Amino acid sequence: MPHESPEKNFYPLFLDLSGLHCLVAGLGGVGSRKLQGLLHCAPASILALDMEAPAAELRPLLEQPCVRFEQRPFRDDDLDGRQLVFAATGNAEVNRHIALLCRERHILCNCIDAPAEGSFIVPAVARSGSMALALSTGGASPALSRRWKGELTTWLE
Predict the structure, then answer these.
(1) pTM of the predicted structure, to 2 decimals
(2) Which end of the chain, N or C, is more open, meaning fewer C-beta atoms within 10 Å of its C-beta?
(3) pLDDT (tens digit, 9 = 90+) per residue, 2-20?
């Protein structure tokens, strides 16, 4: 019998990104962290979009061979061929639009400012070598997950 709850229940999962084509729409603070996390896992490609020129500290990430940066707004056809999307534009309406299109196209999407609109959330992750621990609050309070990340890292070591 399925568990019925007014809140979304997320299935914990570690995903192999090799061969996947990703999109990061928005490279503000959160989008930049998502881009960095994706690069750590070596996807086939990442299309990174932002309306602004990239900050100097982002340039080394955007120069990675698998990354293509375009300074422009999101377009619906940016989803063509993508399997994993981060909607982090800084505009809630645009993020929800991206999440809706992803849902219609069966593309995994993390909607930064409205986790329930997307199909997955990203937990705080502590890594040590090949080991990783993840902690999630179900999207309710990312600050709580980040607070525990240091303790998880200590535990891993």
Answers:
(1) 0.84
(2) N
(3) 444 456 777 888 899 999 9
